[in-house]
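Database export, one record per block. Field names are fixed; values are copied verbatim from the stored entry.
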Amino acid sequence: MYQGYKVKVFIFAGREQTMRLLMPQIKSDYIDEIIIAKNTLNTSDLKYLSDLKNHFAKIKYIEVPDHIKKNNHTSWKYLYQFMQDEDSIYFKMDDDVIYIEPGYFEKTLKFRCEHPEYLCIFPVIVNNPYCCTRLKVHPLMFAKMNLYDLQKTYFYSPKYGAKLHELFLEFPHADWWKIPNHEFGREAVFFQNKNHEENVSKFVPWHYVERPGINSICYFGKDFKKLNVAKRVHECYNDELFLMYNVLKNTNYKHCIYGDTLVSHFAFSGQTTLRNRNDILARYKKLIGG
């Protein structure tokens, strides 16, 4: 527990290949539960997930019905009913977060409780389009591109995803991975080209909206309950669009990137052909001491 709150890590699971890196890094005396939502139909991955209880004492499972698993966007929405206990702080993490900086949970919990005004707290996330726009790694920053084009480039590019990982693996402790804390709200979800209001007032495909990927976020369960996220998330194509677009557009909430914390996210769906994939994972394993 932390300051009277239960601390729960919630993982939308799961791919064995990346979770073998993720799981050993989820460690803190403050963590009460590691919730594994079995959101896969792959029998090999399911066996791996079931075996986790033999190695991690704090594991709790949520079984996603098979008919819901068949549609990823439906299954993600289904899981939010389990993520709004008023007495809890949640760390929601993708199953392909492959590096967690030591001290991440402790530092984030402190910042989380000191700043209740923010809905979600992000770390700096390697291979996250919005986070990358805040960094000063100039060879990868595409300084002449506007934010909209830059984020699309990151999201759909295995080439630049691989470059980011290779750069981080070569210089994991460089100062450029740290940024000033960055709060953002409505201004982060509008197009930075013509006809802003006209564009966002219509149905906008989720991948054309400027917003951070929710690869790793920390929030109060009571805030999600107040927002009625479990029911309202169905308003959108997926959970990310709801939290990073609808909520910011229609409320006064802001999110914040806590610049003194860092995780690394492996790949978006648009990066499935990430070059040197196995080598990158092997190097991350070495980095975390596996």
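Remark 1: DSSP finds 13 helices and nine strands in the chain.
Remark 2: The mean pLDDT is 83.
End of record.
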